[in-house]
Here is the input.
Amino acid sequence: MVAVYTNRGEDFDRSNLANVRVYKFLNNKSTLLKLLPPTEDAFLQHLKRAALATLIDKSSHISKPSLPPYDDFGWALEEDKLVPVASTQPAWPQQMTKAISCNCTKGCNRNCSCAKKKIPCYIGCCCQGSISKCSHAQCAAACSPRE
Here is the structure.
């Protein structure tokens, strides 16, 4: 899924879908939230529903198949109807009220807004918090943790 939402030119070395989601949100001028990748939990719920559909398809030749409970596979019963569970966790961290990120593209030395606030650069910064691009990312142990 990470490869689907990243470009070759982005030099994205993270393999976590959550990191790609944060990076795409903070570094995109478009406000179309539908262009963001799904959260890890939403993707897991989708995979559960797909697995159930596969189980149903594979047992279609049986007259009364024994199927597992649907609520274990990304579905919920509401008002006697099955509805898909979009996610069991919030789409965005609750503690993240204001996005702070620098616009440094290389170095992150004197004019880095993260360095001035004594917080380490992270995936939402233009430097992506990459140790190869950002000298300030190495100070993560000395800086206070980002909340």
